[in-house]
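So, can you check these tokens?
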Amino acid sequence: MSRHRWFLPESPDVLGLLRAQLAVTIEGLDAFAAWAGGDRSAAESLLDAERRGDISKRALLGALRAAFVTPLEPEDVFALSRGIDWILNYARDLVAEAEVLACPPDAAIAEMAMLLGEAARAIDLALAHLGTDDDAATDAADAAIRAERMLERSYYRNMGVLLGVQDRHERIARRELYRRCLRIGEVVIDVAERVVYAVVRQI
């Protein structure tokens, strides 16, 4: 008499894939910070990271469709992945706009780029603690939000400085680039708050 065993299907490491996507985003933000600091060649590294980020996102979404169970609600995984993707896309767009406007990055953009990298690392730490240490996950998400609030203060301070710039083209161009930095920061807030929401849903 033959014996049959039934097994639950193996579940892909969705959270691991999400962190892998974020790791590529952090690479891209490091390249963005290098570009903002004056390394023009770093723009190509950012573009490469953006392309690899898209591949990572597709892999994650494919795994999400195949997963039998996930450590987070599927809608939370999707929202986090989408936000992480937007962070890198918007950084790429900022570099492209700077080239079109013939407006190289300045110290203000360098400062905001550094803060974006800091926030992304805090989000990665938050994801690392999801499901194992909710308090640590929330604390790390809060640290990402604090970094973004520092970015906001930098934005307003440097927008004030622009009032003293006499060259109209430079003033308008830098204003647009600063606004793009602020927009990336707003996406960071969305991602960090989604982590906090995911923690609350598990309680």
Observations:
- The chain has six helices and no strands.
